[in-house]
Fold:
Amino acid sequence: MKQNISESELEIMKILWQKQEATSAEIIEELKDKSDWKPKTIQTLITRLVSKEVVQVDKSNKKSYIYSTTVSEDEYKDDASKSFLEKLYSGSINKMVLSFVKSKKLSKSEIEELKDMLKDE
Structure:
């Protein structure tokens, strides 16, 4: 995927992943209670996502364009996780887990649960 999606753009992606497809009016309606963004701002974010090729637009309906993602939520999460690991831990999940353990970000029960998951793999 390699396209950076901003936090704001991610809010639109979440809506499209949930709905599978939506018009800009439907996206605006979904976001009206969650943000103070103006419709023009939301349309700009949608346009950016289209230019990044993570959202596609169906223009066959002349009244309103229909937007859908070209990237699944799982693909995005996988790519974002790899990017996060690469940036902060040189791609090493071991370094990341060790960092969490050393900084006490994982409880003893979470560590045990992690051990059990690794045994099952």
